[in-house]
Amino acid sequence: MTSSIFHSLLEPDIVQMIQGNDELGLREFCTALYPGVVAEILEDMEPEEAWKVLKHAPASTQGEIFPFFDISFQVKLVELVGDKPLSRIIEEMSGDDRVDLLERMDPDHVETVLRLVAQAERSDIRKLLSYPEYSAGSIMTTEYASLPADISVKEALERLRVQAPSRETIYYIYITDEGRHLLGFLSLRKLILAKPTTRLEEIMQRDVICVRVDDDQEHVANEIARYDFIAIPVVDNQNRLVGIVTHDDAADVMQEEATEDAHLLGAVQPLEDGYVATPFFELAWKRGVWLVILLFAASMTAKVLQYFDPGDGGTWMVLFLPMVLASGGNAGSQSATLVIRALALHETDGRVSWIAWREIRIGALLGAILALISFIVAYLMIGIQASMVVTLTVFLVVTVGTLSGAMLPLGLKRLGMDPAFMSNPLIAALSDMLGVVIYYSTASATVQLFTTA
Amino acid sequence: MTSSIFHSLLEPDIVQMIQGNDELGLREFCTALYPGVVAEILEDMEPEEAWKVLKHAPASTQGEIFPFFDISFQVKLVELVGDKPLSRIIEEMSGDDRVDLLERMDPDHVETVLRLVAQAERSDIRKLLSYPEYSAGSIMTTEYASLPADISVKEALERLRVQAPSRETIYYIYITDEGRHLLGFLSLRKLILAKPTTRLEEIMQRDVICVRVDDDQEHVANEIARYDFIAIPVVDNQNRLVGIVTHDDAADVMQEEATEDAHLLGAVQPLEDGYVATPFFELAWKRGVWLVILLFAASMTAKVLQYFDPGDGGTWMVLFLPMVLASGGNAGSQSATLVIRALALHETDGRVSWIAWREIRIGALLGAILALISFIVAYLMIGIQASMVVTLTVFLVVTVGTLSGAMLPLGLKRLGMDPAFMSNPLIAALSDMLGVVIYYSTASATVQLFTTA
Predict the structure, then answer these.
(1) A-chain residues within 8 Å CB-CB of B252?
(2) What's the pLDDT tens digit per position in B217-266?
């Protein structure tokens, strides 16, 4: 069954069960399906509704479902869950997943909840929380399978059965001494193929490829991808095994890094959450910073032009032509970059008018800020009347550029084409054409206005 | 041991072993280390040298090492390997990896080699080759572990031991009927935790999440990432299991798609190989196509400007100002995009001067082509003398823009900063400033030239 079928089949049933307060039915829904599928269906609801479903599940199931929610959805949910049930969920979540969540929660709330968490789990959490962000330590889990070197294959399999329920993976087994030093590695495949009487040290692979706990997370993801590993061991500087990073976390890191690079390339400060989940003013800030820097760079170009072409009489318009055009192109590149990356990550499904409305407002806000700065720059160079033309044009060009940068990729997608064809330079080229029309129309309108007055 | 240590330790030894023709030593080197590590060391050599090492390994080891090479390195290697040994390597490679290689080889060579491949493998290869590019079928492998529903856990483990050596993974087991219809799913973890007498149908998970053989590879990768799977089953339209896609192939697809989007966003036709591996003229073509399209778009802006500002006397320069500046910015955005993505994928390590020299030549070639087109466009609008200024400026701006777009990110990297800070709009802004200087200097130089003559 392909996963999208679940949605249409199940959503009406669940709404009915919530209305009828059918506790057994809701519990059955949470436990019978794969946790990732449950999360996907619940994430389409409001957090309040989702919790009405999830609260009927046992804590162990809640702990399995939680990590499949987007992190911003998890943060919203924990506000609705009481401290006691939340501490149970956190106990049940796997090591790396709960640290991801706790790092994003309000610190006071974290302290309150942690006090209710069992001692063993709590010290594990505090330790993982202490590793710096973006390090191997911050994405690893301590729930790895490990065995001593001097036992037989038969005994190893028996011990693995005991470890299995609480380990993130038992397919990679790490061989350690009493001091937890990493001695070797065995795959479960090799283990079940070996003779029961063989000792692990005879078949284990020595010289294990590992990473250090303070290595950058990008390095860890690259090592896993390069060697096609399911997990990679993490050691401290005494070569003691402290955790593992699994392939799924490595894939998440790769996606994050690709998103961060894409955003930076489009001159947006990287967003922590997705494009849709980022709040309005945070999004405006992360774009505005770069637009202002770029506006100052463009005003340098105006200065350079003034040196070559003093721009008296009608030709003052030339000085600010590159700045005006660049403002529209830059704003458009930002929107296009954000929307194209969000489309690739399937964040935007069916939200076209929501995006358009948000982009118009962000465009107007950013346009107003840039217009104000442009006014000051232009006033100092070319006087009041001319600078008003520049100011008004920058406002219009940025607003229109922002909106069309978001809408053109969505339009291409609707036509069945690759939205990424709407490249930054192409957006800039279209914006240039429009910018010229707006600039010269504004100028002649203003001239008429001043002449009439 | 972190992987980079292998290099410095082993490379001198290997060179010595090649010189001394130490067959046993080279064979030992190939078989003792993890195949991914062997591949990494060999890939730093010329293909001829690498084959001198690898030819001493048994075919099964060769088949394990081969897939870890970059695909363009694999293609170079197969030219050096005789048809008979190559057919053995292909027999030993896993299903999806060999198809990746065969799809990139010369079709005549493929036919010659396939005739030497064992019948069973050959028909498997032909079948996988028949799936369209970018489909689930094109990235799946047929080497999955499957079992019937009505056997006991004990018997299942025994059968798995038989299947294990030839399967891509045995950690996910698919339950099928005699017609290969997918009935359920079991993880090896669940299997070894179950009581030996339990029948599989009692513990298997029904409603398996799967993809169709003609689904897009991006969809497949997203499903694996969404549910944190190690593998996902692929079924045909009769729900018959035809293959699996594993997590490592999904990660590759995600990287490919991110690279493709990044290239498109920077207005480069996506490269099949990496930036470094792509030949000069192919790279020039994939950039030139977009630069020419963007030049025509910019010449429209010149037309629009001419409508508002007829540009007689000195002001003809204004008409082509946006086009001249955009050409430099676009060329620079392309280089920056390519270099930043290549840095993220660790393709460019230590090749700064090689990159600089290639970018100068590509910049000059693309500059010459764009200059020629600009000349025609400008000649039709503003006459011979003025158009020569435009032509010369476009050539210089594109050459300098291309080079600096590549060098600025490498410089940031050298300073320990994130190279992606050199965003497309920032490159365009810097290029604008430089473009103005070049444009006006060229103009005044040309005027002097014509005045003197």
Answers:
(1) 225
(2) 999 999 999 889 999 999 998 999 999 999 999 999 999 999 999 999 99
> Testing the interface with A: which of B423, B430, B437 to mutate, by most A Cβ within 10 A?
B423
Same domain, B74 and B180: no
- Is residue B148 located within the same domain as residue B125? no
What is the mean predicted confidence (pLDDT) over A318-326?
91
Average pLDDT value over all residues in chain A: 89
Summarize pLDDT for B74-122 with one digit per residue, the tens: 988 888 888 888 889 988 888 788 888 888 888 888 888 888 888 888 8
Same domain, residue pair A120 and A154 = no
Whether residue A209 and residue B418 make contact (CB cut-off 8 A), yes or no, is no
Residue of B nearest to A432 (CA): B301
Say yes or no: A397 and A422 in one domain: yes
The answer, for B166 touching chain A at a CB cutoff of 8 Å, is: no
Range of the domain at A236: 144-246
Residues of A in contact with B440 (CB under 8 A): 305, 308-309
Summarised one tens digit per residue, pLDDT across range B439-450 is 999 988 887 776
Residues of B in contact with A37 (CB under 8 A): 209, 227
A150 with A122, same domain: the answer is no
Across the interface, whether the CB atoms of A227 and B37 are under 8 A apart is answered: yes
Using the structure block, give the residue that is written with the tokens 């790279």: B283
**CA A275, A276, A280, A284: dihedral to nearest 10 degrees?**
20
